[in-house]
Amino acid sequence: MQVYLKNIERLKNFYQSDYYSWLETNDPKMVKNVEDALYEDPDNCDIELYKDLSLKYDLECKKCNLFVYVNNQKIKMSADIVCGIKSLKDLGLTTPEFLSNYAKIRSSIKLHFIWPQHKVPTINTYRYQIYHDRIDYLLYDLKHYFIGEATSMQKAYQNNNTKIWLDAFNNDFPNFVQEMHFEDFVDENYDVLDIEFGQRKVVTGDLQQIQSKAKNKIVQKRYMEQLLTLDKLF
């Protein structure tokens, strides 16, 4: 995984520049524009990341694409990091702390997932809208979907190749967890562990309630802080 390291180098040089100091004083809104211009999304362009994910999931890899076969149908899969850079920025930490946390998240293959790639909505894009990227809430939602319940993410699950891919798991959540290497996010009974509480309890409650909770900024901050402390994920 190389692209995230180049991102850190570019951002660090920017933050240490006279231009950044000037913008902070004279045009602070421009800072984000410069950050966006300097940043490359590794999920889209890091060939080394896709090689690592190919090994993790034992899948065919061609540059920045992975492929899974379901009933002789070839389904393209794309990478998805556990949280976006915005969630790390929203913690409101110092620049060195932000860059350190970014490196910590991006360097862990356990926090990189894959989902079918096609026209939106996809799991990758829709999970931010519904659960603000909370991977524990997404897994809880998937568990409900596998037992036949209507869920908040259903629009993505039933779209295009995602439906074909999910159907291949035959509504077997434990099998899904094992195949997709989500073991660190569930307990021995395959109940989803709540990251907001340091995985000391399991996620419970109505899907609409947790969707509402996921949008609470205090809850979001607590979730991110706890995610960064879970040593088994790094």
Can you put this structure into words, describing what you see?
It is a single chain. With 234 residues, the chain is of the alpha+beta class. It has one domain (41-233). 53% of the residues lie in helices and 9% in strands. The chain is built from 14 helices and four strands. The chain has a four-stranded antiparallel β-sheet with strand order 1-2-3-4. A hairpin with a 4-residue loop joins strand 1 (60-61) and strand 2 (66-70). Helix 1 runs antiparallel to helix 7 (95-106). The radius of gyration is 18 Å and the shape is globular. The chain starts with a helix and ends in a 7-residue tail after the last helix. 32% of the residues are buried.
Task: Give a brief rundown of this model.
The chain has 14 helices and four strands. The chain has helices at residues 3-15, 18-26, 29-38, 42-45, 47-57, 85-89, 95-106, 123-131, 135-146, 154-157, 160-167, 173-179, 207-214, 217-227, and strands spanning 60-61, 66-70, 73-81, 112-116.
